[in-house]
């Protein structure tokens, strides 16, 4: 089904998402705005990332993403991917205090078991972040990718959600299959009704014939009557 949502007109985050609620189709991939305050000491680096697809079809260049903790005006925690830098560059000096942000709201990723074994972090998993942040009340299930990175970082490319317009061949096949099955069922019903009608017509025709099957023995016996009379003479 074609995605007909207007994902490119920024709307307040609270109008499409609520803390402690799962990500909805309406919210996923939308540009949103949000106000809040940066939580000090909760910045971290996610390694093994790419700069993102800028629309050219490539996944971008290798780099480290910087993830921050924003406490919204409503007191909820929101993970924010503020930008990416060179591998191993660390976290530059970033703005503090209040912030008014615009970015794309996307679903959380799943924690990677290999991260714990390697002692690094490669996934942006909200379920993991809440265990790393100092203080958390309620939390949004997705995270925000800023549309413009702060000084010292590069902007992560976050294109709009794909809007498929190609025909789904599998669904088309199923539709044709059901049409064929339906047509075959109608044919079987018509054939059964026709057979019953033909049987009924044949039965009625037999009842109307005076020389029907029941008179056959008497007709077969008639040629022998003269011979029997001659024997009596």
Description:
By secondary structure, the chain is of the alpha+beta class. It folds into two domains: 11-146; 169-223. The chain is 27% helix and 25% strand. A five-stranded mixed beta barrel has the order 2-4-5-7-6. Strand 4 and strand 5 form a beta hairpin. The longest helix is centred in the last third of the chain and has 40 residues, at 169-208. The relative contact order is 0.16. Mean pLDDT is 82; it is low at 227-232.
Explain the layout of strands and helices:
Layout: E1 11-12, E2 30-38, E3 44-50, E4 62-72, E5 76-85, E6 98-107, H1 113-118, H2 126-129, E7 138-146, H3 169-208, H4 216-221, H5 225-232
- Our estimate of the beta-strand percent is 15-25%
User: What is the number of strand segments?
Assistant: 7
Cα radius of gyration in angstroms: 40 Å
Overall form? elongated
Query: Count of helices?
Result: 5
- Sketch the major β-sheet: 5 strands, mixed, barrel
Topology order in helix (H) and strand (E) letters? EEEEEEHHEHHH
Instruction: Briefly note the structural class of the backbone.
Output: alpha+beta
Helix content: 25-40%
Count of individual domains:
2
Distance between the termini: 100 Å
Low-confidence stretches: 227-232
Arrangement of strands in the largest sheet = 2-4-5-7-6
Overall average pLDDT: 82
């Amino acid at each position: 089904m074609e995605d007909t949502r207007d994902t490119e007109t920024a709307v307040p985050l609270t109008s499409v998402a609520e803390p402690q609620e799962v990500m909805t189709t309406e919210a996923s991939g939308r540009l949103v705005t949000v106000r809040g305050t940066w939580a000090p000491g909760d910045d971290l680096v996610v390694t093994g990332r790419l700069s993102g697809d800028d629309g050219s079809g490539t996944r971008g260049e290798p780099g480290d993403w910087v993830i921050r903790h924003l406490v919204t005006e409503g007191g909820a925690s929101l993970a924010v991917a503020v930008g990416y830098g060179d591998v191993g560059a660390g976290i530059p000096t970033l703005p503090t205090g209040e912030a008014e942000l615009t970015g794309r709201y996307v679903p959380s990723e799943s924690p990677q078991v290999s991260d714990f074994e390697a002692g690094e972090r490669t996934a942006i998993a909200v379920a993991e972040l809440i265990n790393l942040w100092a203080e958390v009340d309620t939390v949004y299930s997705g995270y925000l990718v800023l549309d413009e990175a702060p000084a010292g970082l590069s902007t992560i490319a976050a294109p709009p959600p794909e809007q498929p317009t190609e025909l789904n061949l599998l669904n088309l096949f199923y539709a044709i299959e059901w049409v064929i099955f339906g047509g075959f069922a109608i044919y079987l019903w018509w054939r059964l009704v026709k057979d019953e009608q033909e049987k009924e017509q044949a039965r009625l025709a037999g009842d109307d014939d005076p020389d029907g099957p029941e008179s056959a023995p008497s007709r077969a016996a008639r040629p022998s009557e003269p011979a029997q009379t001659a024997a009596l003479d």
